[in-house]
């Protein structure tokens, strides 16, 4: 028994630290007395563990005056600029790397084009010098890098860190990306598919501060979502939870890559829109035609908005989130129609829920996935601080 006890104690310590870190995150600034009340931990445990977290450089003390008599009271806050997090987003045509502080505030960002490069090693060769220079900067400043978060088209085998069979992403099937990145950079590596990473960006750094139940819908070459319920990302038993692009909107419609027919993705993604329009081969050309008043393009747009509204109503009825957030490469083209979409969705949901229904644009625009990769590291830190902090 004697050799089991320390592991058990270490686990308890980590859980208690996680509890403290999450409570500070929720309140932004909090006193030790309030921590005792809110976490249920003893004041001795709070004193010891907050001291340790201060030594790690994760939190700091700050004095605030309290009440009319101006009595000083010590508050605990995140120490945002003592660590670096690196986020990497690899899409089918581009990559983006961001270096941020602990709270996901971008200090440096780099984007590049990888169109036509299908060998993962070649893509990583392009990316590597940028990440190495960020690591060098962190070393120079004496700031530990907490980890490298990665957002990439799914689906993936997260246990082994392999990509499964991402559609339209040749060369990456079965690629052991996690092991390769660990070997290249010597950092802790965390990987998530792009839709879920986007949801995590909102969970930790965006609208999730006020909402524990959110759905992030990303629309681009495909349509996917990340679902956060009670503050936790939901993945399902096959990792398919939130595959909203594959809900049937047209019975017996076109066959989809997933095996189903009439999926939203076959209708409302960029390729889906272009296939239905058949008047050109880029989304820019499509919206140009729309704005020129082209009749067929406008009919196709109205249909696209109707599919979007129908899908959002179904999402709202199934998941009952506080907020549905829209993003992805297609969203900027659709943003001007958002008020109309919201009004139609509201008119088609339960009357008592109409006032509560929120549909919002993504908080981080084109950097949503990369910030999501950073949020993935941050979320792991809050869940298992010792695992992330110790090498
Ligand atoms: Zn499908």
Automatic annotation (TrEMBL):
Protein name: ROK family transcriptional regulator
Keywords assigned by UniProt, alphabetized: Carbohydrate metabolism, Xylose metabolism
Source taxon at top rank: Bacteria
Similarity comment text for this entry: Belongs to the ROK (NagC/XylR) family.
Biological source species: Paenibacillus psychroresistens
PANTHER family documented for this protein: BIFUNCTIONAL UDP-N-ACETYLGLUCOSAMINE 2-EPIMERASE_N-ACETYLMANNOSAMINE KINASE (PTHR18964:SF149), ROK (REPRESSOR, ORF, KINASE) FAMILY (PTHR18964)
Function description: Transcriptional repressor of xylose-utilizing enzymes.
InterPro entries: ATPase_NBD, ROK, ROK_cs, WH-like_DNA-bd_sf, WH_DNA-bd_sf
Keyword Magnesium set for record: no
GO biological process, one term: D-xylose metabolic process
């Amino acid at each position: 028994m004697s050799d089991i006890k320390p592991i058990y104690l270490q686990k308890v310590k980590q859980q208690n630290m996680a509890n403290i870190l999450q409570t500070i995150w929720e309140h932004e600034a909090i006193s030790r007395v309030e921590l005792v009340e809110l976490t249920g931990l003893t004041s001795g445990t709070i004193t010891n563990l907050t001291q340790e977290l201060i030594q790690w450089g994760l939190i700091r003390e700050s004095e605030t005056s309290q009440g009319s008599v101006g009595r000083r009271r010590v508050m605990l806050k995140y120490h945002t600029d003592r660590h670096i997090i690196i986020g990497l987003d690899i899409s089918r045509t581009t990559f983006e790397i961001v270096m941020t502080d602990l709270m996901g505030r971008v200090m440096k960002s780099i984007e590049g084009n990888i169109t036509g490069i299908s060998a993962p090693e070649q893509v990583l060769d392009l990316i590597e010098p940028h990440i190495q220079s960020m690591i060098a900067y962190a070393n120079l400043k004496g700031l530990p890098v907490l980890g490298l978060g990665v957002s990439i088209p799914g689906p993936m085998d997260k246990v082994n860190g392999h990509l499964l069979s991402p559609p339209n992403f040749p060369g990456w099937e079965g690629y052991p990306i996690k092991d390769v990145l660990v070997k290249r950079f010597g950092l802790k590596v965390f990987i998530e598919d792009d839709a879920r990473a986007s949801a995590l960006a909102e969970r930790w750094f965006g609208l999730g501060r006020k909402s524990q139940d959110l759905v992030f819908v990303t629309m681009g070459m495909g349509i996917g979502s990340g679902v956060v319920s009670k503050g936790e990302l939901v993945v399902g038993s096959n990792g398919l939870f939130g595959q909203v692009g594959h809900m049937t909107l047209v019975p017996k419609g076109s066959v989809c890559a997933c095996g189903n027919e009439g999926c939203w993705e076959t209708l409302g993604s960029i390729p889906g829109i272009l296939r239905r329009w058949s008047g050109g081969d880029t989304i820019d050309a499509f919206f140009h035609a729309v704005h020129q008043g082209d009749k067929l393009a406008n009919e196709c747009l109205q249909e696209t908005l109707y599919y979007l509204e129908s899908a959002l109503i179904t999402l709202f009825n199934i998941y009952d989130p506080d907020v549905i957030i829209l993003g992805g490469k297609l969203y900027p083209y659709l943003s001007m129609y958002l008020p109309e979409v919201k009004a139609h969705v509201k008119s088609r949901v339960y009357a008592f829920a109409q006032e509560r229904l929120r549909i919002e644009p993504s908080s981080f625009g084109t950097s949503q996935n990369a910030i999501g990769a950073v949020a993935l590291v941050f979320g792991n830190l809050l869940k298992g601080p010792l695992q992330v902090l110790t090498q």
